[in-house]
Amino acid sequence: MIFKESPLKGCYAVETERFSDSRGWFARTFCSDDFKRIGFSGTWVQHNHSFTKIKGSIRGMHYQKMPACEAKLVRCVAGSVFDVAVDIRPDSLSYLKWYAEELSAENGRMIYIPAGFAHGFQTLTDNAELLYCHSQTYQPEHESGLNYLDELININWPLQVTEVSDRDKGHPFLTINFEGVKTK
How confident is the model at residue 180 (pLDDT cuts 50, 70, 90)? Predict the structure, then answer.
């Protein structure tokens, strides 16, 4: 695996190295020793699989609040997506900045998103499937999200939005006041 650090400290694009022969290819998608080198020594305690039917659909921007903050490793296994991480660590130099990678079954790329980030994606094809590894189990009492259209974050979604869940449409927008950035 080849780790390419993004402009957001701790967030990495992960290139898988495919070993090919006449049968096809093989690639490693996780090795604890490799991930320790970028600062992740946790355990993946939950794996999820999503399927999104319609090109242009958005899922996100999701995160879990303390004490259930989680790191994620995201991989696309069918179709392609524009995968986005937003730094929501208040003390970070890249606070409220976003970073995106195109993940696809074809390119085999993954994204490692550390705890303290929101995550979401837009499908670039119909019938996109993602696999997620999580360092924490889902805890509904700690779930939260940012609005995918928030102007303070200003994500440049590549396609016209076709589908968004009511839950994701209802995530709050951020505001700036004399105390700093807050959700409405």
Answer: low
How many C-beta atoms surround the C-beta of residue 25 within 10 A? Answer: 11
Q: How far apart are CA 184 and CA 100, in angstroms?
A: 25
Work out the burial of residue 106: count CB atoms within 10 Å of its CB; fewer than 13 is exposed, 13-18 middle, 19 or more buried. exposed
**Could you give the percent of the chain with pLDDT greater than 90?**
92
Closest of 182, 155, 158 to residue 168, by C-alpha: 155
pLDDT tens track for 101-122: 999 999 999 999 999 999 999 9
96: phi then psi, degrees, rounded to nearest 5: 70, 15
Q: Which of 112, 119, 132, 171 is catalytic?
A: 132
CA nearest 59: which of 169, 183, 172? 169
Amino acid type, 56 = G
Please indicate whether residue 149 or residue 183 has the higher confidence score (pLDDT): 149
Indicate which residue of 62, 119, 148, 171 is catalytic: 62
Residue 171 appears among annotated catalytic residues: no
Q: Is residue 132 among the annotated active site residues?
A: yes
- The span from the CA of 180 to the CA of 44, in Å, is 34
Q: Name the nearest CA neighbour of 130 among 62, 34, 41.
A: 62
